[in-house]
Each structure stands twice: as C-alpha cells, then as structure tokens.
Amino acid sequence: MKLIKTKLKVNNHQKTILTEAERHQLLVEWNDTTIEYPKDKCIHQLFEAQVEKTPDAIAVKFEGKKLTYQQLNQRSNKLAHYLKTLGVGVNVKVGICVERSLEMVIGLLGILKAGGAYVPIDASYPAERLNYMLGDTAVPILLTSESILEHLPEHSARMVFLDRDWRAITRLSDKNLNGGVKPENLGYVIYTSGSTGKPKGVAMSQRSLVNLITWQQQETIISKGTTLQFAPISFDVSFQEIFSTLCSGGILVLVSQEVRRDSFALMQFLIENRVDKLFLPFVALQQLAAVATKCQTLPELSEIVTAGEQLQITTEIIELMNRLPNCRLQNQYGPSETHVVSAYTFQGTATNWPTLPPIGRPIANNKVYILNHDLQPVPIGIAGELYIGGTGVAKGYLNRPELTAQKFISNPFIERGESLLYKTGDLARYLPDGNIEYLGRIDNQVKIRGFRIELGEIEAFLNTHSQIQQAVVIAREDIPGNKRLIAYFIPAQEQFSTHNLRRFLQDKLPDYAIPSNFVKLEFLPLTPNGKIDRKALPEPDKIRPELENNFVAPRNQTEELLANIWSELLEVEKVGIQDNFFELGGDSLLATKLIFQIRETFQIKIYVKTLFYSPTIVKLAPTIEEILQTGVYDKEKIDFNAEAILDLTIIPQTTVNQNIVEPQNILLTGVTGFVGAYLLDELLRKTSANIYCLIRANNTDLAKQKLKNKLEDYLLWDEKLSSRIIPVVGDLCSRFFGLPTEKFNFLAHEIDVIYHSGAWVNHIYPYTVLKSANVLGTQEILRLASETSVKPVHFISSLGVLPSSSNSESTTILESAPLTETPNLKSGYIQSKWVAEKLVMAASDRGIPTCIYRLPMITADTNTGVSNINDRICRQIKGCLQLGMVPILESKLVDNWVPVNDMSQAIVYLSRKENSLGKTFHLMNSTSTSLNHLFDWICSLDSSVKKVSSNDWVSELSNHPENVLYPYILKLEFQIEKSTEKQAEIPSQIIDTQNTNNGLKGSQIIQFTPIDEKYFETMLSYLTNSSKS
C-alpha cells in the first residue's frame, strides 16, 4: 500500500474524512493539557524544598538502615561538593554503578546537585554492553563500590568509591550548593535497547523531569505514604519511584535483589514495611497477583502504577484488586524517549475491566498525535502511528545525530513552544471517549499469511485460562518463509492439556491466530528491567504435542509417505495416522504447502478442501489411493435436499406478533461481521427498538467489549445509542444458542423481529465444517421465531445460491422462483447458504413470516472507505500489490459490488414495509464490475505493477508463501483454468430485481452507488490510512 499512497491524494481525502471540528478535537481539544509547573526549578531543588518542610521525617530505608530528609540532603551535599572538586558541572555525565543501597540514592542526588547528569550502569549487563555504554558516554567519573569492581570492564573513568572514599567525602561541606544547572540542562542519560543491537542513550532534560514529577505529585492519591523502590536505576521508572517520593515527603523503601526476584518474599516484604504504593511492570504485577491467590493477608496498598509493557487484566489481577477495595490501579504508557506520556486510571469493579485496557490520555503538558504516513491525523477508531510532543520529549540520543533527526522531528501542528515530535513506532488509535488504545509495535507487527495479528490479544486470552499462570506469544521463523506463532506458558497446575488450550483459543480467535506450538516453561526469561525477554525464549522442540488420540504408527507405504511429509512440514518428529493436521499446528498456509507436496509426491491433482474433509492420515491415505486408481475423488456424497429438511418440531405456536413495522425488541445475529455491524448501526438510527445482539464470548462484559471494538473499527460506535444495545452471549452452533432454557424462553417472549445475518464465511472450508453455524444455526433462529409469539425472520443470503447457466439460451432468474432442486454450487459456504435458505422457505410454508435478501459482493463504505479488510476483494488488491503484478484474464469475469452502507439502508428500509414479508430480494448494483477493470485501476494508481498472463501470475504467486493470496492459490488456479477453457458462447444470466426496485421506491436508495475509479480510490485510501493493509 505504501507504493500507491502518493497517488491516492491522501491529504484531499482526509478533508472528506475529518471535518474541521473533528480535526480540532483530535489536535487541540484532546491535547489541551497545559498546567503550571515550576519551570525555573530542577529536580534536586524540589527535593531541597521538601527537606525544608520535613527535615526529621524518614526519607529512605534499606535493610534496617534509614536516613531522614535532613541526613540524606547533607550526605548528598557532601558528595556534590566532592564531585565539584573533580570537575563535575553542568551537563557533565557521571556514571553510577552500585548495588541497591542508601548510597545509591545519595549518589543520584549528589550528581544532580553538582550540576551533572547521571548515567546508570547495571553491572549485570554483558561486558560488551558495559564497554559500549562507558565508551559512548565517555564519563569522566564513575561512582561505584569495591564489591562491584570485579564486574566492570576496563575503562578510562576515574572511580569514586562510595564506601572506601567516604571518609574523604565526609570532610566536605553539607550545605546546599549552586551547581549552576538550569532546567534545559541534562538530568540523566538512560540507555534503552536499539534495533541494531547498539543501545541508545536517551538524554533527558531537567525541565522534562520536573514536569513529570509535578504531574505525579498532583495525580497521586497519597502524598506522604511509603513507596517501594523496585525498578533498577537503569530503568526510567526508577526515577519516578525515587523522586516522586522524595519530592513529596514520603518514605522510599529499597528492596534487595533477592527479595525483588521472589514474589512470595516480596509479598511479605510489602506487608512488613507497610508499603502504600507500587510501580511494577505487568509481568511483576501478574506474578505478585498469582502469589496473592495463595495468601490470606495482603498489604494495605493504596496505589499500584504499572508501566513498561502492555498491561493485561488477568483473572489473578482482578482477584487481587477485588481484595484491595481501597487501592487504585493506573496504567501508564511512555517510551524511554518521553518517559510517561499518558495514563489511564481504572474505575469501577475490577471484574468489569477490559482485558487489554487503554493507555489513557496525555499527561500534563504532553501532546499525543495519531497520524498516517503523511503525518495527517487519522479518524477516531482508525489505527495510526503514535507521535508525542510537548514538555516530556527528550533532547535526543547521545552521539547519534542521524538517528535523532530520524526519530525526533519537527512538530507540524504548533507554531511555538516545544517543537519536537517523537516518532514512537507504536500503533494506536483514539477511542470515542478520547482515551487511546495501544495496538502494539509497528516494526514488530506480526503478519501471518497476510493477516495482521495482535500477539497481545492471544496472550490475553491465554492468561484467562485456568491452566495458565502466565503466557507469552511470539512469531518465529526458524525456517525461512515459515513463520509460526509459538505460545510459551507457565502452567498454573501440574495437570494440563495443550489440546484443551488449542480448543479454548479456537472458540475465541480465527484459525490464523492459533499458535502452532505450545511450549511449557518453568519460568519466563526476564530482562534486567523486569520485562519478558522474548529474544531469550527457546526454539520449540520437535516432540509430538499432546493430542486427543494416542500415537498410531503408519501401516503402509502411502501412510508412511504422508507421515514423512507432515513431519517435515510441521516440524514434528513423530506423526501418527490418527493425528489431526490442524491440531498438530497446521493452518491454511501449511495446508496449501502440504497439497503441493502431495501433488509432487503422488503425481495427482488434489485440492486443499480435501484436507478439511480428511484431516488425518488414516482418512487422507484412502482418498489418495482412490485418486491414483480412478483419477477422481467423489468428495461430496451429500444429499443437499435431505440436508434441507426443517426440524418437524418447528411449528408456529400463535399468530404473528403485531410489532412488525415498529418493533420494540429486535434480535440481530452476525453483529461483529461487516454487514451485521452496518445493519446494527442502521437499525439503531432508523428504529427506537432495543437491539439484542447474539455474540460468542465468555461473558457479557467481554461481548460488549468485542462489539464495541468492532464498531470502532468500522467507525460506527456511537456512545449515545449504545444503551439500546443488549449483548446476548450465545453460539449459533449450539442448540438454543447454548442458552439456558429460561433465557431462550425470555427471548422468545420479548423479541418482535429477527434479522439473521450471522454466518461462518469461509470459501475454503467444506460444507461439513460450516454446517453447524450456517445451517443448524439458521434452524435455531427459526425455532426461536416459532416460539411464543411468531416473529418475522429477515434472512441475509447470497446471490451465489442461484443456479449457474447451463445452456445456450438466455435465462432470467426471478426473485419469486424457488431454488433449483439440483444444486451445482461451487463452495462449501454457498452450499450451506443454499441449505439454510431452503430451511427458511420451509419455515415460511409453515406460517413463519420471512424475507430473504440475496446479496452480491459487499464492499467499502462510500463515505469513509471502511472495508472488510479480509474479504476476497481486499485480499485480491493486497495480493497483487505484494506481487507487483496483476493477471490478464481472458474471459470477462465480473463481480457485482454494492457498498455496505447502501446495502444496510436498503435492507432496513425493505424490512420495515409490511408488504415485503414473504418476498425474496435480489439486491444488486445496476452495473457489474469487471475484474480486469479492478486490475486496470490498480495499475493506474501504481505504475510499477505489471500486467502478466494469468499462468505467469499463478506461477509467481506459488513462489511467495508470505503473500496474502497464497492459501487460495489452488482455488485461484482452478478458477483461471475454468475461465480460459474454450466454451460455447453462453449468454449472461438475467437476474430479476423487480421486487427490490418496487420496494425501494420512495427511499433514498433508488439506485446503488456506481463502482468507478473514484470509489475505488476512496476504498484504497481507507486501506492505506487504517495501517491494517
């Protein structure tokens, strides 16, 4: 998509997406964070002011030793005077490498008071990293202790030993001194990891640090409580812990490294030291929360601040916070280059908190911008890169001018004030309430088979499972071109089942987001800062994972060959003939590769859908042998007319409900899908009804959040209308939707009208896989419609159920004509819709009022360009752009496109007319769109895209497993073969739309929006700006 952005006229398009009011809200209103702070002060001066107020109060404690504010000030003054004699002054960088101790705090204050900037150095770092940091900073002075000396590499700095040299230091004055430092001077240089392997020294000014501490003082709910000093001083959060406490009159309690690493010991430490406030990264908080489940007594905490990595609200954290009713949890966000940028304080009961919470709003005097590639603000709900401006932005990277210029750019949205804008590399979006949702790293976005996957979402689901104490998911590419998701976890109990974990995720995530391997670990590796060290996670072994079936060895040559292919492809040493390909870690990409290898090994023609029918070797081997013997495989053997017999118990009990045109309560299925979401929006705006939405989720709160996230994705969320949305947690695949009898009966009594848009849309899976959702789910909808008062059913179907032309004469397919009795349907999905539609017709014959809406290809919103980014058309566009070529199709393959907003308006308008009942509607655009036209538009917007023959295009695609279209290559190959066959001239079918045309008279949709290059450009602009392409 980057290749075509310059031709999309993004800036002009943005003006159509963002009104001036919306732009003002994003850039100005939500960045109105200005508050007063002591701009003329430095950090040590704030501390000195606190000393004047509480000289005799305890300032810091460690292992039985303590210092008052007066004592800490005097000792740090002595050190500052000593450093002055050694030449330390303004902007002089002073290294500090000491163990946790009172001397550590004295050292930090002493450096700042002398006018210098402290550079924390962790002796546990590898020698190469220590060498680099000491060389890069060229610190003239290094504060340390004799016990550390053996861990340090050779260097040129003069060492000041805070133990051995203290006698000389203590002879100097204990009075405050004027170091000559100003707010714009350096406060510290803290190193953070770099993508090139070289750490980057972030140079932070005193002004930025004073602003942070002033905000923290105003934000905190306790001013003089006891704060745990948990983070290493090489981690920027340590600055918050130390100076938000010492500048406020609180007590800072240092914890030893041994206790810090032991969550059980840490819990006891918090209780014994009466700690009020904690700053913890998510991993440490999760470990502490897990320990709390085994403790009867908890510390009386008032505030927990978490930062450093994405927070997940796990079951253990919910339980911990429920047991601490007087404790506040705050989620802070900020890279080292800006320290804290935004904060989100949780409200209400922990049980209702979102699993992946937002990162809040910008803190005092900071500004946040979420921008597209052209540095233009993206609409609310659309993902973009997060940029940070304001007082908190660092001065840049030490000795890295080119990188500083690349990451710290000029702020185009302000004319005066802090002019730098830091480019975070983080993906985020604004929520409608002004909070910001963090979506992960842009440069570490995981794309599997063209799907953008949020690893944090998978981790969050795993961390809610009772068998999991903690989990992390990464993408590994141990074999080039074979990128796999691997889940690492610490089990919460001795007895666990990876088979159950896989099934658990299959109920919550699409197949491409299911990890191929689950690796049990005793502990997760951590960095010195307490974050998960993802680079240190081990390569999965090749041992066969635990499955439902026991291992059964191959029995003949065909099974042996297949087992060897599976073993190599899935990287599993031992494959049994009863092992399910997908439960071994297979997915649709690997399925495509498997079929290619089977074709090559056995020299037969076989397709991916065969694997879905026969996902085990014991089932697949006979299929291959049948093809070898006969040349064909009769895969279907399904009597679709027999499948389309409606349950005999579904009979209307009473007359039709009177609330048809103006219903009070509507049931809508498929609401998290593209069409369903737009139907919900239209029903909310065109009726006053409550909309009951059937959603698959663990509980009502998760269902609400799932729906809200989806509506925000489509720019449809409206807080003012949300009170009429009522989630119903259920599953189309289950009888009574998996609801208790009383809940099902309640819906039967309350609901006036049903809109059934829900379906499992997959054009690779066979009918047998899709039947439970698409056929049996429809049957349960009809069962509900027949119970208590009879309810009209508005069924969303597909034009694909119509018969294909089979003779040389023109044919007209009437809306009123019954479906053919001998279906020749091209995919399992269409077969399931054909059967479902026959069930709806049977229900109509029994007295249930029904309307059937047969839809063509549903495409982007005409106004916003919002698209279903994973549908066939979007895949086709992305796949061609990735290849840099489009196929030249010999036949005139056409699609009928209707914009989603047009379609939803038409359906709702038709459904509210009483004379629509009993009719079928063909909702079609008056003109169809040629696929060759689509390819022409792509080429016109990107001149680097070439036109090639369809055979060359397929051949090139077969060499790119990472392409979004690769899993569909065999289907595409088949379609192209069929399209190039020489056939008798077959006239196009005429599809009747008289019911639709008559029904829409008087509406705003007399004709659907024509599909042209201008519309296509709007669609592509959305795909580019959404950052999901």
Q: Figure out the total of helices.
A: 33
- Quaternary organization: single chain
What structural class is derived from the secondary structure elements?
alpha/beta
**Neighbour order of strands in the largest sheet:** 29-28-27-30-31-33-38
Q: Number of domains in the coordinates?
A: 6
Question: Unreliable stretches, pLDDT < 50, 5 or more residues?
Answer: 1-16, 982-987
Fraction in helix:
25-40%
| Name of the CATH superfamily of the largest domain | NAD(P)-binding Rossmann-like Domain
Question: How would you characterize the largest beta sheet?
Answer: 7 strands, parallel
The whole-angstrom Rg is: 32 Å
Question: Per CATH, which architecture of the largest domain?
Answer: 3-Layer(aba) Sandwich
Shape category? elongated
CATH topology of the largest domain: Rossmann fold
CATH class of the largest domain: Alpha Beta
Distance between the termini: 7 Å
Mean residue pLDDT: 86
Query: How big a fraction of the residues is strand?
Result: 15-25%
Q: What's the β-strand tally?
A: 41
Task: Please tell me about this protein's structure.
By secondary structure, this protein is α/β, with parallel strands linked by helices. The chain has six domains: 2-32 and 365-441, Roll (Luciferase, domain 3); 36-202 and 226-251, ANL, N-terminal domain (Rossmann fold), CATH 3.40.50; 255-358, Rossmann fold (3-Layer(aba) Sandwich); 446-533, GMP Synthetase, Chain A, domain 3, CATH 3.30.300; 557-630, Non-ribosomal Peptide Synthetase Peptidyl Carrier Protein, Chain A, CATH 1.10.1200.10; 659-855, Rossmann fold (3-Layer(aba) Sandwich). 34% of the residues lie in helices and 18% in strands. It is built from 33 helices and 41 strands. It has a seven-stranded parallel β-sheet with strand order 29-28-27-30-31-33-38, sandwiched between helices. Helix 4 crosses helix 5, helix 17 (557-570) runs antiparallel to helix 18 and helix 30 (950-957) packs antiparallel against helix 31. The longest helix is centred in the last third of the chain and has 20 residues, at 767-786. The termini are close together. Mean pLDDT is 86; it is low at 1-16 and 982-987.
